[in-house]
Amino acid sequence: MAFRTTTAALALALATALPAAADNSLPDIGTAGVSAMSIEREARFGQAFSRFARANQPVVDDPVLNEYVTGLGLKLLSQADSVRFPFRFLLIRDDSINASAFLGGVVQLHTGLFLNAANESELASVMAHEITHVTQRHIARYLESQSRSTPLTIAGLVGSVALAVVNPQAGMAALQTTLGLKMQSAINYTRDNEFEADRLGLRLLYNAGFDPNAMATFFQKLAEQYQFASTPPQMLLTHPLPTSRIAEARSRAAEYPVRQYAPDLDFQFAKARIMVRFQQSGTTELHNYFARAAGSGGDWQPDAARYGQALALLAINRNEEAEPVLADLAGRHGSNTFVLDALTDLDNARKRHDAAIARLQQAAQRQPDNQVVMINLADSLLQAGRHQEAAELLDGYLRRHPENPLAWELIAQAYRPLSDESAFRQAQAEVAALKGRYEVAVDQMELAANLSQDAMQRARLGARLEQLRQQQKDWDALRN
What is the end-to-end Cα distance of the chain in Å, rounded? Predict the structure, then answer.
């Protein structure tokens, strides 16, 4: 679960991990990895990599799913030790089963994980494993070791590993050229990392309130499903599942007390949303599937199946049929952001912008900093032609959350008809920067500063321009 590679890239990226300890205590790694990769430097590379991923992968910019994934990650992190920097959780549109981790707290999840996980605990077990790779600094320790034994720079090593995460084929070639390590040696080290991440991730999973048995059940499911497949999923290619690994996960889970777990409705909402909006399959067929599931029970909770049915109806423009389904859901889950977002889509599709805005303004009083509420409210204001209100709303939100690409895209849409060319150029610069297009970002920010009529604003934009130039240097170091 560490890196989405089909070959040696995963193994090489973690090649100096320490062997797993004999008990559940955290190994004393002290400042391992710090001499070559300080915490500050690792955080900067993590920030640069998140842009690298956006530039090279189909990152899902869906506020509802992003909120869910981030909330799940933060729930796990609240029980983790050695969290040295803020984590970023990226959802990648890819039906394959895999996840990956990188320096500086970046964790990527494929949408395919949702499609194959039976419950929230199984998904959380993958996230707990990846979080542990980061908190144990497996990658930083690998880079430190290689920097001592080769004439290569840390930046060059980081660039090769980063490429291996986002582009397995090119990444393998880069790593082999850069390092020339032997496959079997690297794989042996990786096994130690995997067992350590399983062991500590399992404890993290339980302490965060999830079922510790989920790790073994997900492992077993993958092993059985693809036992005779000619092309196994990425996760099995990069993370082989010997029977000893599955048995150890099951044995360790049995050591924890048995307890009851609450229904995971939001997980099923998220799964249904991915199936309708991001899976490569027919929407009409999905509507029929969810309509049957809503009536027959089975693996789907009825309200989750109805939610999937409503999304499918919206997707095929059968808005009148979606309305009673969503109204029924709103009666029980009106404050749930999955339902709130779908209600907004329905209202805007039927040109009832004022109704959507009123509902979202009420929600904003309860959740004044919620990204789903803010993004939906801004979008509804724009659709209603209320550009100034949208710009003011987004300006306040972006001061608190400057790395939200959707908010920057929306504020650019707001400023364009307001003829605020400086603010429009600044928004364009921020969108470009978040997608790793730094040359464009620098050019647009220079234009924004030159076009500003306010001295204080020009100074602020000038300072931001210097930050972008430094980020461009980090970006160039990561790529080269």
Answer: 26
Q: Using CA atoms, how far apart are residues 114 and 374, in angstroms rounded to an integer?
A: 26
* Beta-sheet pairing, 106-110 with 99-102: antiparallel
Q: What percent of the chain has pLDDT over 90?
A: 51
**130 noted as active-site residue:** yes
Both tokens of 17, joined, read 């991990």
Q: Which of 194, 198, 264, 420 is catalytic?
A: 198
Q: Is the pLDDT confidence value at 329 over 50? A: yes
CB-based contact 252:230 (threshold 8 Å)? no
Q: Which of 131, 128, 54, 42 is nearest to 87 (CA)?
A: 131
93 burial type by CB count under 10 A (0-12 exposed, 13-18 middle, 19+ buried): middle
- CA triplet 311, 317, 321: central angle to 5 degrees? 70
Contact predicate 203/253, CB 8 Å: no
Contact status, residue 85 vs residue 120, Cβ threshold 8 Å: no
Considering 56-70, 131-145, 151-165, the range whose residues carry the highest mean pLDDT is 56-70
Would you place residue 480 in the very low, low, confident or very high pLDDT band (cuts 50, 70, 90)?
Answer: low
* Highest mean pLDDT, choosing among 30-34, 181-185, 319-323: 319-323
Residue 219 token pair: 């492992």
Report the C-alpha gap between 13 and 97 in whole angstroms. Answer: 20
CA-to-CA distance for 120 and 114, rounded, in angstroms?
Answer: 9
Question: What residues form DSSP beta bridges with 89?
Answer: 107
CB 248 within 8 A of CB 238: no
Distance between CA atoms of 114 and 68, rounded to whole angstroms? 12
Give me the catalytic one of 94, 122, 130, 474.
Answer: 130
Q: Where are the alpha helices (DSSP H) in 167-318?
A: 168-179, 183-207, 213-225, 234-238, 243-253, 265-277, 283-296, 302-315
CA distance 197 to 132: 5
SS3 call for 92: strand
Partners of 67 in beta bridges? none
The string of DSSP letters for 424-471 reads: HHHHHHHHHHHTT-HHHHHHHHHHHHHH---HHHHHHHHHHHHHHHHH
Is 421 designated active site?
no
- Reported as a single tens digit per residue, the pLDDT across 74-132 is 999 999 988 888 899 999 998 888 888 888 898 999 999 999 999 999 999 999 998 99
Question: Range with the lowest mean pLDDT among 63-67, 259-263, 410-414, 473-477?
Answer: 473-477
Report the alpha-carbon distance of residue 1 to residue 164 in Å, rounded.
Answer: 14
What single-letter amino acid sits at 154? I
The pTM score is 0.84
Rounded CA separation 332/45 (Å): 44
